[in-house]
Each structure stands twice: as C-alpha cells, then as structure tokens.
Design a protein that fits this description.
The protein is built from 4 helices and no strands. It is mostly helical. It has one domain (3-152). The protein is elongated and about 65 Å long.
Length: 153
C-alpha cells in the first residue's frame, strides 16, 4: 500500500475513533452526554461506513475511493452548514437549553447564534485531514493506474 494511502486510512480511522469516543464516553465539558447520546443507531451506521471507506482505500480501487471521499465531503459540508454558517452569518439562534450549550468553546459567543464547540472543531479538522489525505491518495492511485494502463499499450 502506498504511503499516501496509509496516511489517508490512518486519518479515516482516527476520525472514526474520535467520533465514537465523543459519542459514547462522557468527557464533560468536552462533550455533554448528560441527556444521553440520542443518535446511537446513526453512530453505528457511521462507524460501519467509515470502516468500509477505509477498506475501500486499502483496496486502492479509485472509483471506490472517490465514492468514500464524496461521503466525507458531504459530511464536512454538513458540518460547515450546521456550525459555521449560523455562527458567522446568523441564520439560526439557540437558547440556554441548547444541547451543546454547556460544552467547551474557545470561540466568542455572537448573540444567540450557535457557537462551534471544541468537540466539533476537532471533528471538522479531522474531516478536513481525511479529505486532503484522501484526495492525495486518490490522485496517486489514479495516476499509478493510468501509468500501468498506458505501459500495457
């Protein structure tokens, strides 16, 4: 397996492990599980999907790698729309009883807008690492496959 693929798979497994950690282990004030997880089934599906994408990358099949990368890109997009868009542009407000109201935040509060907490910022950094390392691994796998194909001609 190429070094770029090993790095991409490592980033994917780190993101999967981190997500499962913060969804199941009470690390207050990093996360707040005092009201329960409330998305247990989705967490199992996410873990299964993340492991599947890591396997696809390990197989080094470019079209499967692209499919998995697209899933991570959609997830990252949803993180941006859910956290950064309302924080920066104010299209949503939350109150003191908001699910993430008591989690650790290092960014300043802007009115009643949802402030991205540290737990989600770390997740978003991991997702970005998955996307960058995945894009590099896909590119290198794709170009190597193309070179093998051209050499066979």
């Amino acid at each position: 397996m190429r070094k770029s693929t090993v790095i991409a798979v490592t980033c994917q497994l780190l993101a999967a492990g981190y997500l499962q950690l913060v969804e199941w282990v009470d690390l207050f004030p990093w996360n707040d599980l005092s009201k329960g997880n409330a998305q247990e089934i989705m967490d199992f599906w996410l873990l299964g999907g993340q492991v599947l994408v890591a396997v696809w990358f390990a197989w080094q099949k470019p079209w499967l790698m692209c499919l998995g990368w697209t899933g991570y890109a959609v997830w990252f997009y949803l993180q941006i729309v859910s956290w950064w868009q309302p924080y920066l542009f104010g299209n949503r407000v939350v109150g003191p009883n908001w699910y993430f109201a008591k989690t650790y935040k290092f960014l300043p509060q802007i009115g009643q807008r949802p402030t991205p907490d540290a737990e989600h910022v770390v997740l978003q950094i991991l997702l970005l690492a998955v996307l960058v390392s995945g894009a590099i691994a896909i590119w290198k796998t794709w170009t190597a496959a193309r070179q093998r194909f051209q050499a066979a001609d």
